[in-house]
């Protein structure tokens, strides 16, 4: 199907089902129950899942396949956001031209930065990309204020020309982003019993793009081009000795990966039309590295899982505070309760980054393949058990 | 002319901090072959050693003074630090005043202990793993350390003053024969530079003139051969890691009065220090120090108004521009050796 083998088609199908039914899957608790705060099925968060999923899938095309660790990928995301917002300001509120432009501009940026950075490998490459990203971040904050609006961030105003659209709505407000009239922020709510499920236009558009991005990533992984990139990862020197120039391949991977980041940035701006320089800061680049590694670098589904995992738990953990913890453990004796709450409060609420850091260290140390490898190990564990059980089953029924 | 001297002086203190951190990074890299992204966190922990000592010395008990009243008419409560009651008011006050220099003594054992624990507990297991894994795990560690500090000390910068005696500024121009008040330089920054010079000199002397240092240098050049000679090189490298941690910590302690410590200062310095190390040449100790001062001074020149008016924004990015230019023209950095990090 679609030029994929059965296994990949199944994988794509699973992701598609997850994306389509996410509003149900992420909303397991009734809206008025005490657990409702742990629902993740609201538009803002779901949009973040898919957008960061796209970002991580793109990053994985570079890091997972070629082994080049870029610490400056957020620059492309930021550039994409700025271009998209400019498109909303100048052309129209339709998201298609905005997303196209953000991909093109991010691609051009990636071409320039990649052309220079890819002259070096290993840690030098990481430092060069980091340097470029920090440069973009600082320039966006200071000199480029006419383009980026500095610390305030780039926003839409009522004076923007929007030559193909309207400057202001009839009621005098700023028009909203849309896809040929379909408003990105509008949400259908389906109330079923105690549950309320939200279906957001923006989420489904981003989700569709995630599927496209994921499909392209599968095709790249399985193509001769992807094979070439993996050869670069395993031994670039040997590739060079065979007389092959690897630069065009790595540069192409870098640009594709940059365009993915630009797409993510453009989508981010489409959901909420503003762009700030902090999206380019190196901590943002670090985040996508965390997502990819946590999920499993070099695997297809890993980055999507990692992005979902980090964004989900960031959201959930940040909501738990001391009072919630006390209510959970209040059955215990007081001293024990306080001790447990004292331990846990380090890890929840604003301590979420601590949990993330620890988790990340554990994953890098014990599970270099990330969540995907963890899943495979579990699968093998249970698979073997099943085999063993089958064996004992056959043994216990001797054939007389 | 006076402006140039002033900018050089201004660059020295930041350059000293870069040089100290980069020196530690290079020591770790040269000995253990590990890229330590948590080094900035060590710098930050050093600064928080100064904060902690300051807070410890300021621990007070309250007494009620019935002869005086506060503005509500209640008897006034007077806070007396314990040290003042133990050692007498004058010596106690002096102790509190000198908390930052005292923190040097306080921080060295702490930093060495942290360095040992880090190396034995975590980094030891990453010698044989790819550099990317080392970067990632130490990056995770840096996040953890940073968040722990944030949890206990809060997110706001904490003022940690230098001793009273060093709070003023020094009229440098008067000595060199310029008009008074043209080149003014705070005392503490001068001390920082002198301190950095002493530490750097000490590390180099230690490596150059002691038997231990000789063995370590031999180990850096060829670890296997040194091991074959029956020397336990791993143990010495662990000690070097502790030393590197102490150097970063000391840089942090002394930097506390210049820039109030906050939990993300380590990350801010780390990114720049890595650029410094790469510019100086991975694995070259003199290169790291030279590049640290060079980039510090370059940065302060770029922030001159005359230069900013020609190239706006250059002060923000000069270090990165310099790094890019140097990496592309001299791929091994200023003083890099052949064969380091070129796999």
Automatic annotation (TrEMBL), chain A:
Keywords: Cell membrane, Membrane, Transmembrane, Transmembrane helix. GO terms for molecular function: branched-chain amino acid transmembrane transporter activity. Its main location: membrane. It comes from the Bacteria. It is a multi-pass membrane protein. CDD domains: TM_PBP1_LivM_like. It is found in: Cell membrane. This is Amino acid/amide ABC transporter membrane protein 2, HAAT family. The chain crosses the membrane at residues 12-29, 49-71, 91-116, 123-144, 202-221, 248-268, 288-313, 350-372. GO terms for cellular component: plasma membrane. Pfam families: BPD_transp_2 (PF02653). Coiled coil: none annotated.
Automatic annotation (TrEMBL), chain B:
InterPro entries: ABC_transp_permease (IPR001851), BCAA_transport_permease (IPR052157). It is a multi-pass membrane protein. GO terms for biological process: amino acid transport. Keywords: Amino-acid transport, Cell membrane, Membrane, Transmembrane, Transmembrane helix, Transport. The chain crosses the membrane at residues 16-35, 42-61, 98-123, 190-216, 237-258, 270-298, 310-328. One of its GO terms (molecular function) is transmembrane transporter activity. It is found in: Cell membrane. GO terms for cellular component: plasma membrane. The keyword Acetylation does not apply. The keyword tRNA-binding does not apply. Its main location: membrane. PANTHER family: ABC TRANSPORTER ATP-BINDING PROTEIN (PTHR11795:SF442), BRANCHED-CHAIN AMINO ACID TRANSPORT SYSTEM PERMEASE PROTEIN LIVH (PTHR11795). Belongs to the binding-protein-dependent transport system permease family. LivHM subfamily. This is Amino acid/amide ABC transporter membrane protein 1, HAAT family. It comes from Pseudooceanicola antarcticus.
């Amino acid at each position: 199907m679609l030029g994929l083998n059965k296994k990949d088609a199944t994988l794509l199908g699973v992701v598609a089902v997850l994306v389509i039914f996410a509003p149900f899957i992420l909303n397991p608790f009734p809206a008025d129950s005490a657990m409702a705060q742990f629902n993740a099925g609201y538009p803002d968060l779901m949009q973040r899942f898919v957008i960061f999923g796209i970002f991580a899938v793109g990053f994985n095309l570079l890091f997972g396949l070629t082994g080049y660790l870029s610490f400056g990928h957020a620059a492309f995301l930021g550039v994409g956001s700025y271009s998209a917002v400019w498109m909303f300001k100048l052309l129209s509120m339709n998201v298609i031209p905005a997303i196209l432009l953000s991909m093109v501009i991010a691609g051009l940026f990636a071409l320039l930065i990649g052309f220079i950075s890819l002259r070096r490998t290993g840690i030098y490459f990481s430092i060069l990309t980091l340097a470029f990203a920090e440069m973009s971040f600082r320039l966006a904050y200071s000199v480029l204020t006419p383009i980026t609006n500095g610390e305030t961030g780039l926003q839409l105003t009522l004076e923007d020309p929007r030559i193909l659209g309207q400057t202001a709505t009839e009621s005098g407000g700023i028009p909203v982003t849309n896809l040929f009239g379909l408003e990105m922020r509008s949400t259908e709510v389906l109330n079923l019993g105690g549950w309320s499920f939200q279906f957001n236009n923006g989420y489904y558009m981003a989700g569709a793009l995630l599927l496209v991005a994921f499909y392209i990533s599968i095709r790249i992984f399985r193509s001769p081009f992807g094979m070439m990139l993996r050869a670069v990862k395993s031994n670039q020197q040997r590739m060079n000795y065979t007389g092959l120039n690897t630069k065009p391949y790595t540069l192409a991977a870098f640009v594709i990966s940059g365009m993915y980041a630009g797409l993510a940035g453009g989508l981010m701006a489409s959901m909420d039309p503003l762009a700030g320089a902090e999206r380019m800061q190196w901590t943002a680049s670090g985040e996508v590295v965390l997502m990819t590694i946590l999920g499993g670098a070099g695997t297809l589904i890993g980055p999507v899982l990692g992005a979902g995992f980090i964004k989900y738990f960031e959201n959930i953990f940040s909501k738990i505070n001391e009072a919630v913890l006390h209510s959970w453990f209040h059955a215990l004796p007081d001293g024990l309760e306080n001790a447990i709450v004292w331990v846990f409060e380090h890890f929840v609420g604003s301590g979420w980054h601590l949990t993330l850091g620890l988790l990340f260290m554990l994953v890098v140390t014990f599970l270099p393949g990330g969540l995907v490898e963890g899943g495979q190990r579990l699968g093998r564990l249970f698979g073997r058990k099943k085999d063993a059980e089958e064996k004992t089953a056959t043994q216990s029924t001797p054939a007389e | 002319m006076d402006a140039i001297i002033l900018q050089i002086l201004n660059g020295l203190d930041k350059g000293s901090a870069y040089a100290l951190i980069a020196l530690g990074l290079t020591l770790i890299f040269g000995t253990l072959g590990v890229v330590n992204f948590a080094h900035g966190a060590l710098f930050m922990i050093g600064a928080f050693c100064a904060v902690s000592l300051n807070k410890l010395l300021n621990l007070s008990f309250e007494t009620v003074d019935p002869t005086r009243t506060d503005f509500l008419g209640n008897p006034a409560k007077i806070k007396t630090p314990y040290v003042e009651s133990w050692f007498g008011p004058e010596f106690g006050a002096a102790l509190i005043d000198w908390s930052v220099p005292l923190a040097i003594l306080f921080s060295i054992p702490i930093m060495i202990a942290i360095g040992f624990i880090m190396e034995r507990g975590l980094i030891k297991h990453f010698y044989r793993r790819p550099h990317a894994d080392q970067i990632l795990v130490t990056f995770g560690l840096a996040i953890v350390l940073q968040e722990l500090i944030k949890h206990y000390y809060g997110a706001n910068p904490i003022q940690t003053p230098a001793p009273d005696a060093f709070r003023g500024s020094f009229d440098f121009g008067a000595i060199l024969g310029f008009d008074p008040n043209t080149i003014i330089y705070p005392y503490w920054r001068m001390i920082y530079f002198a301190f950095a010079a002493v530490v750097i000199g000490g590390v180099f002397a230690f490596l150059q003139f002691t038997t231990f240092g000789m063995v370590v240098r031999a180990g850096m050049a060829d670890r296997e051969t040194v091991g074959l000679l029956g020397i336990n090189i791993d143990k010495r490298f662990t000690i070097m890691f502790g030393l590197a941690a102490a150097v970063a910590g000391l840089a942090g302690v002394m930097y506390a009065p210049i820039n109030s410590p906050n939990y993300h200062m380590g990350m801010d310095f780390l990114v720049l220090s890595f650029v410094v190390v790469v510019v100086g040449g991975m694995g070259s100790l003199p290169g790291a120090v030279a590049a640290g001062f060079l980039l510090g001074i370059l940065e302060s020149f770029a922030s001159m108004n005359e230069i900013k008016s020609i190239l706006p924004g250059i002060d923000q990015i000069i270090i990165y521009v310099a790094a890019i230019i140097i990496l592309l023209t001299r791929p091994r950095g200023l003083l890099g050796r052949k064969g380091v990090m070129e796999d």
